[in-house]
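Hi V.,

Quick status before I head out on leave. The structure for the redesign project is tokenized and pasted below; the design run finished overnight.
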């Protein structure tokens, strides 16, 4: 057996996968940082990097439970975490959850992999939003499936375009991914919009994957509607976790909840069980904080009100970016991302990856190009607005100066 590296790598499917934290631009930023250049990384939503920390009760809970967390847990999770997740889900209107409907995981990321691996046969199609959180497309591709993008409409506050969803359904379509609130657009979908998506899923027998990890980070008194609560009969897998709402991204603490017509999905659920037990269990110290965290599920609320850091940072970045000639954006209703549109004619932009690389080289700020979220045109980028106001002020100034002179060759 004398396989070259080239032959081995040929068996993977890493083309056609989007990225925000991977890829050549992020690698270039890492190289610059290794050379001692101070790079501001606005490519991941990692709250502690920017001075957001978990409530003290969580730190206490992990210390108090550390001795009991040393062994494997049941592959679903520890009972206290499962009960807390059930209670939280019920508070969102996802009812009738029994033993076996809740799975804990090492972040939502791991559960996205498990849930897609258990479902996809080669050639199956999964509807994903465009733009998407790229992990959904990547994992679908790696499982041998085809991710088909449905358009989220910028002119309608980035709401999913129902007609486009219907157009994209084929006999191979198995599931639809709904990311609400949305990364990268910061959109929050109306109940009517969700009801329409769920009607389509019901009509075509699709599994709904509802990624709701930002559901506790809402501005302006907005209300979040869970897909599974809007249509309790439709088979839905709802994803959530503590990376964002409790600023605990490093704990890798996530869960998924299965609801709706489980009888029809019995084989699929068995596949999820099998995969979930193959990785033994989720990190147990992290599970030990779920109850404390969900007893205070909305601990981030003060940050989202006028005077709160996230509220003020959103207000600033939205206005500052809109003031720059050639940029325009929709005001985010949730999460901590802005997805500005670039007037590509004005700057002769044909390659948005080149655009963010040029900005990185000139100003040492790393943002993510829109195509990293599988957006088809080179006319958007995403900025994470977690840095404090004074840093955002400086970043906006850099972008303004950069675009004053920028013309892509
Ligand atoms: N889903 C969405 C929409 C995200 O934006 C992220 C992280 O940015 C994740 C899932 C991954 O979350 P976790 O940290 O729980 O793996």
């Amino acid at each position: 057996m004398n396989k070259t590296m080239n032959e081995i790598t040929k068996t993977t499917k890493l083309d056609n996968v989007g990225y925000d934290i991977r890829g050549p631009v992020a690698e270039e930023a890492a190289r610059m940082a290794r050379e001692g250049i101070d790079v501001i990384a606005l490519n991941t939503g990692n709250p502690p990097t920017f001075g957001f920390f978990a409530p003290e009760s969580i730190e206490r809970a992990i210390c108090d439970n550390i001795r009991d967390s040393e062994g494997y847990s049941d592959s679903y999770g520890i009972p206290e975490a499962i009960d807390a997740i059930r209670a939280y889900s019920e508070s969102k209107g996802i009812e009738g959850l029994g033993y076996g409907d809740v799975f804990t995981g090492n972040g939502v990321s791991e559960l996205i992999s498990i849930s897609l691996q258990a479902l996809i046969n080669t050639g199956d199609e999964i509807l994903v939003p465009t733009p998407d959180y790229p992990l959904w497309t990547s994992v679908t591709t790696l499982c041998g499936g085809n991710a088909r993008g449905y358009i989220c409409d910028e002119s309608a506050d980035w709401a999913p375009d129902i007609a486009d969803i219907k157009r994209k359904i084929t006999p191979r379509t198995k599931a639809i991914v709904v990311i609400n609130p949305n990364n990268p657009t910061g959109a929050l979908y109306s109940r009517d919009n969700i009801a329409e998506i769920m009607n389509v899923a019901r009509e075509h027998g699709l599994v709904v994957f509802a990624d709701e990890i930002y559901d506790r980070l809402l501005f302006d008194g907005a209300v979040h509607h869970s897909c599974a609560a809007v249509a309790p009969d439709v088979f839905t897998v709802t994803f959530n976790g503590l990376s964002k709402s409790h600023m605990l991204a490093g704990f890798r603490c996530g869960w998924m909840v299965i609801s709706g017509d489980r009888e029809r999905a019995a084989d699929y659920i068995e596949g999820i069980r099998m995969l979930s037990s193959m990785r033994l269990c989720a990190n147990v110290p992290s599970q030990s904080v779920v109850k404390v965290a969900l007893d205070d599920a909305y601990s981030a609320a003060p940050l989202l009100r006028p005077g709160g850091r996230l509220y003020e940072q959103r207000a600033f970045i939205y206005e500052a970016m809109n003031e720059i000639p050639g940029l325009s954006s929709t005001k985010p209703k949730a999460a901590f991302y802005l997805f500005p549109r670039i007037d590509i004619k004005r700057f002769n932009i044909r390659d948005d990856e080149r655009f963010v690389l040029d900005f990185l080289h000139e100003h040492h700020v790393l943002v993510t190009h829109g195509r990293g979220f599988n957006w088809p045109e080179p006319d958007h980028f995403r900025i994470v607005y977690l840095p404090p106001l004074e840093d955002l002020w400086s970043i906006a100034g850099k972008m303004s100066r950069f675009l004053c002179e920028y013309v892509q060759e």
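Above is the designed sequence. The longest helix spans residues 389-405.

G. will cover questions while I'm gone.

Best,
W.
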